[in-house]
Amino acid sequence: MSAVKKVLVVGGGIGGQSVAIALAKKGVEVEIAERLDAFNVYGVGIIQQSNALRALDRIGLADKTMEEGYPYGQLKMFTAGGHFLGLAGAPPVEKYPSHNGISRRTLHEIMYEEAIKIGVIYKMGTTVTKIDNNENDVTVTFTDNTQGTYDILIASDGINSDMRALIFGEFKPRYMGVSVWRYAFKKHEDLDTAYMYYGKRSKIGFIPMCDETMYMFLVSAEGADNPWIEKSAYIPMLKDYLAEFPVKIAQDAREQITDPNLVNYRPIEASHLPDPWFKNRAIVIGDGAHATVPQLGSGAALALEDGVVLAEELEKASTVDEAFRAFMKRRYDRCMAIVNASETLAKWELMEFEGKPLPEGANLGKVIGQAVGTLMAPF
Ligand SMILES: Cc1cc2nc3c(=O)[nH]c(=O)nc-3n(C[C@H](O)[C@H](O)[C@H](O)COP(=O)(O)OP(=O)(O)OC[C@H]3O[C@@H](n4cnc5c(N)ncnc54)[C@H](O)[C@@H]3O)c2cc1C
């Protein structure tokens, strides 16, 4: 690798582990500083479209994620009452199926094991408090007051990235008016692919995670002021939403939702950094650079792609600046197309939940079709 020999990645999530594995496979010395003392990834799932699998293949992990996940075809869409509306979702790409459902915990473990195997060093319970970022290298101060000097720092510490604040100054994500509730179950015997049902106040989806398990997501609008919801309200609220869906899979799920500690409730935020996402020797990737509303289920796929592309460009270029510029050229428009399409879909969804008419000319099929076209294009 010509441009870098020693790299610090801050944040050991999907984007951080992707870039760490991709760089370590090219012979770079990689350390990951992770704020958590120990990973505790929640056990609901994630949708991987074919482009996510294609990116995982470039770091040698696509087959393993499909073995431990649940590869499936297109998504089946229904009315709340179960009338079949049609098929949607990504087409297969190269040798990969339209989708793979997988537990986030399993995906994390697959990436973690690979990273450890190829020599990535994890500094757990550690973050960076100060960055001296100049044209030749970057020196950081860690929380234990030790210092380290690296060729580059890659910030992959998520939507509320502290590293982004240290590099570029304060930057706040925006609340988008919608929330997502998730819960994991034993897989329903009828679930052969992903199912989605459209209600008046919410929409729900069931995604297989492996032969034995599935998860449900429910998208709702809890109010413009992003109200705090007490844990004690989770179960009654979810059951109330699910009453709108008389279909068996939803009613079976409704009965099985009993433990508020297993409900994952997330008000949805979005943000993006303007071009460029780098300054001197520090660069932001993943949600810290381009957090999308999950309406297109693609944020993690983009974070995986970021990792692969950054490693490729660092290998090709003779200087860091050249590599970072080439990375931006390949990533900015692609990521922004998905950020913008997801936000449009979320805004329209919110209007539907609020009973408001959609803007004149709103064309759901066109927005989704163009976004899927972008995702499936080579990256
Ligand atoms: C409800 C919901 C559903 C979603 N569903 C999908 C889906 O189906 N498919 C899909 O592709 N995407 C989905 N996404 C998006 C996806 O989860 C994110 O895009 C993805 O996790 C981003 O990866 P990341 O590595 O950038 O950040 P993260 O996954 O957030 O990882 C950040 C890591 O950095 C660590 N960290 C944070 N701060 C610091 C710090 N200061 N110092 C050190 N470490 C730090 C964190 O502990 C964490 O380990 C969904 C998102 C939401 C909210």
Automatic annotation (TrEMBL):
Species: Maribacter sedimenticola
Protein name: 2-polyprenyl-6-methoxyphenol hydroxylase
NCBIfam families: PRK06847.1
Database matches in Pfam families: FAD_binding_3
Boundaries of every FAD-binding domain copy: 6-319
Keywords: Monooxygenase, Oxidoreductase
Domain of life: Bacteria
